[in-house]
């Protein structure tokens, strides 16, 4: 089940889910730190979704919403889960939630294999990195 964590309980929920986001950071090599994400959540600049069932929390996702040039857009910053979570099912649940609140597009970054999760997506830009 997908649950949007209310801002008032971010501080209590974060310790239970931060390891999912830390794993995602390690896997994807983003420059955004776990502390940066926590501050985004605490200040209300991002939303925390958790994926849970009767046995506990199995994943977490951080997103924000902004008005883009073509309308309301959700930007997924990071997500991670244990092996029990089926992302194809959970993302469809998230899309339903986003549509209900008027979201027209979703953007996210990730490794090349991410396209398998989002076959209908299109590449809009590349993110390059190099050492100096």
Written account of the structure:
It is built from three helices and five strands, in the order βααβββαβ. The protein is an alpha+beta fold and 132 residues long. Helix 1 runs antiparallel to helix 2. It is globular and about 40 Å long. The mean pLDDT is 91.
Question: Outline of this structure?
Answer:
By secondary structure, the chain is α+β, with helices and mostly antiparallel strands. The protein has helices at 10-28, 34-42, 87-100, and strands at 2-5, 47-53, 56-68, 71-81, 105-108.
What is the strand and helix layout of this fold?
Blueprint: E1 2-5, H1 10-28, H2 34-42, E2 47-53, E3 56-68, E4 71-81, H3 87-100, E5 105-108
Helix pairs in contact: 1-2
Sheet with most strands: strand arrangement = 1-2-3-4-5
Uncertain parts: none
- Mean model confidence by pLDDT: 91
Largest sheet: 5 strands, mixed
Order of SSEs, N→C? EHHEEEHE
Beginning-to-end CA distance, first to last residue: 44 Å
Considering DSSP H and I runs of 4 or more, what fraction of the residues is helical? Answer: 25-40%
Structural class estimated from helices and strands: alpha+beta
């Amino acid at each position: 089940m997908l649950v949007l964590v209310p801002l008032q309980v971010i501080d209590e929920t974060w310790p239970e889910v931060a390891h999912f986001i830390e794993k995602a950071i390690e896997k994807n090599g983003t420059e955004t730190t776990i502390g940066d994400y926590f501050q985004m959540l605490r200040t209300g600049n991002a939303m925390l979704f958790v994926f849970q069932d009767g046995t506990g929390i199995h994943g977490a996702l951080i997103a924000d919403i902004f008005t883009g040039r073509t309308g309301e857009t959700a930007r997924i910053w990071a997500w991670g889960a244990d092996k029990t979570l089926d992302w194809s099912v959970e993302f469809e649940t998230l899309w339903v939630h986003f549509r209900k609140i008027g979201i027209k597009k979703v953007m996210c970054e990730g490794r090349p294999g991410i396209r398998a999760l989002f076959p209908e997506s299109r590449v809009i830009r590349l993110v390059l990195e190099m050492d100096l």
